[in-house]
Design a protein that fits this description.
Helix 1 (2-49) packs antiparallel against helix 11 (254-287) and helix 2 (52-70) packs parallel to helix 11. With 466 residues, the protein is mostly helical. Helix content is 84%, strand content 0%.
Length: 466
Amino acid sequence: MRLAAVTRARAQDFPSASSKLGREVGWVAVPFAVQQAVRLAANIILTRLLAPEVFGIMLLINSLRTGTELLSDIGIGQSVVRSPNGDSRDFLDVAWTLQMLRGLLLTLFVLMAAVPVATFYGRMDLAPLILAMSPVFLITGLQSAGLFTAQRHMQLQRRAVYEVANTVIGSLIGIGLALMIKSAWALVIALVIGTCVTTLLSFVVFEGRLPRFRWERAHVREIISFGKWIFLSTAVYFAATSFDRFYFVAAVPIAMAGIYGVARTFSDMLAALAQRAGALLVFPRAAAMQGRQEEMAIHLRQTRRKTLALVALVLGAVVAGSDQFILIAYDERYHAAAFMIPVLIVGVWFNILSTFADSMLMGAGRPAFGAWANLAKFAVMLLGLPVALARGSLLDALVVLVLAEAARWLALLFPSRREGFAKATDDCLLTVLMAVSALAAKYVLGMLGLAPTLAEWWAMRGLLHV
């Protein structure tokens, strides 16, 4: 009787819990979609105003900025979210102090690295642009610690307003400056001004109180102790996700690197959506299985198979029509991206498989496999890209990127099988489903004249000049 009562109580609570989860997912997914739509529209407008060479330069500058941030990540925000002291004003002030000092050190580092980086790439015009970008780290370091407490308490509405406002304002600033300055300076200045706006909004949206400089050894020790694992993880992640950007800028004409950056914008959107789904939907369910993994693994595997089957069908259609979108939305200077995007999206498919597997293993308390998988991906790029581009083949380089994503998936597949989360036959059949749906959709769209046929798309590889 008691068990029945508990079961009925849980059943009564389930609708409200499901409703709450639906609202939370909505507050994450909808703002994300709005942000991506705004960024896409801004990207299309900017490509009308600026030359491909500008996007090649910004590909390097943004990669340098992202890499510097990731390679120095000591998990300050994550420490606030997980620490029992996360709501303490003293702990938040210490976290803000560490964040500010980190931003100052990164600014000094980039100031010193500007000339060596420009010399390495043989483009001294990069040096003043990198110098102008360097204050971004210090300005970011001054952001309110309220960002961390909002994440800690899942204040998703505030976070959504903050992120969408930043995206809209930053895009408008970039477009406005590009109308006046027809060079990379427009986007660099927009980056600095946009970061200032982001920092000011962090205090307006989350908290008005100005933080104080505070140094307490116990709190510093707690943050650094936890952050060393974040540092190692993000270092491997950066190597696996950014090596191609740095290498393309050095190995191919800067205009072609800019076109590649435009193509990566689309594939990165899909990959980012997969990461959000893994973090919000897959990881929590896998974590909830602790203590009853054997019982729940079969159910989770079945849910995963059905979900990925739907994703495979949708992604196949995206592969088939993505080239036509480029031909319509962008002028002919960027049409080489129409050939690149379908290939990159095939890589996204393996990225999605990997993200689901990584999230499940993380939830089961097996985080090391994700780091090893990223190392496998990085190794394929490190060995394959120089060989491909030495032969003068950008097509081969794109294939290497797909193989790198496949290597990451294979590295995660075997531990996923041991944990009962996946089967090799499932993933192989799902991959075949994605390929068949892409080819079928391509045939139909080409026959109706709504997109280039497969032969017409293949002929566009001649645009890949290196």
